[in-house]
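> forwarded from #structure-qc
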């Protein structure tokens, strides 16, 4: 699998009111740059929670979401960037 980076990596917002849809990306690469596991949340644009998961220290995951869904985290150590998946 190859990733096409669609923007600049940035710290995720830390509350429902400041989540990001990462330029309407349908896939977001999130990375925990810290040494503590952190909670990551995905919600609709209307602030309805879709789900959460814990991202371990130093871990990276790809979130699949609708273009308007937003991602936020329990700490700014969680970094995100919209990506396209090739292959």
């Amino acid at each position: 699998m190859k990733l096409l980076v669609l923007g600049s990596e940035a710290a995720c917002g830390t509350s429902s009111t400041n989540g990001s849809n990462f330029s309407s990306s349908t896939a977001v690469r999130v990375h925990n740059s810290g040494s503590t596991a952190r909670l990551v949340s995905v919600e609709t644009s209307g602030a309805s929670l879709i789900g959460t998961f814990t991202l371990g220290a130093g871990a990276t995951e790809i979130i699949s979401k609708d273009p308007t869904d937003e991602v936020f985290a329990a700490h700014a150590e969680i970094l995100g960037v919209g990506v396209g998946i090739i292959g």
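QC bot note: The CA atoms of residues 17 and 42 lie 12 Å apart. Residues 2-81 form one domain.
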